């Protein structure tokens, strides 16, 4: 419940939205839940590999792969699942190549107390999901529908939580099978698509989307906090970028290993340093100078 609240906080404050969904590149990162506290952290990445046309409907072929954190690096598994997903008429379907049928995943036309019959690819069956309530959220001037859902009855898969129009469920893109422990998925960490970037940790979306190695202690920033200018030691870097907590790039003056942020509002920011070997992010705190 706490994570759901965090999701809405960032959604309301950070995302510009568009009327068309899943056009062009689209990508999700979900946390993968673990059974034991000492299990290494892992993520699930789902992204559109290419566009395709089925029965004159614009669809996409989406690749799903597990990633693991190992010694600060993000390593990928060899196994890749593929899904054909289509977004039209405010509904998301998965095209089943065995039956040549479009099978429903989401229907954002449904309202409160309606029942969504959603397809679970893991065991090739349908589940019944009740929409307890609906609402609309204004995200940077764009309105998207939100459905609060729960699966009722005895089914092999479940879809519970929050369905967000144009993004999907906040736990996993597909219904989660109960016969797998732990089931695939966890909380949504990052979504990129339709010209937006959303995550509960904005800079994580930037890092994960590039599938990069996160190297430690290769950049030192001082002073931090600062009243305006942050100096750094390290490099060389071919690109240095500053982002606010919404993941929006902020233009800055950078010269002589100094980053001048004296004209910005007080608060937290991320500075991302890039070279050929790695991409490194550092969180900095800018304070008001009242003197």
Provide structural commentary:
With 291 residues, the chain is mainly beta. The protein folds into 2 domains: 2-209, no CATH class; 220-286, Sandwich (Immunoglobulin-like), CATH 2.60.40. Helix content is 7%, strand content 52%. It is built from 2 helices and 23 strands. It has helices at 2-14, 202-209; strands at residues 26-31, 42-54, 57-70, 73-88, 91-96, 101-107, 115-120, 125-139, 142-151, 157-158, 161-164, 168-169, 176-177, 188-193, 196-199, 220-222, 229-233, 239-243, 249-250, 253-255, 258-260, 267-274, 279-286. The strands form 5 sheets. It has an 8-stranded antiparallel beta sheet with strand order 6-5-4-3-2-1-14-15. A 5-stranded antiparallel beta sheet has the order 7-8-9-11-12. A 4-stranded antiparallel beta sheet has the order 16-17-21-20, with no helix packed on it. Strand 14 (188-193) and strand 15 form a beta hairpin. The chain is elongated, with a radius of gyration of 21 Å. The N and C termini lie far apart (42 Å).
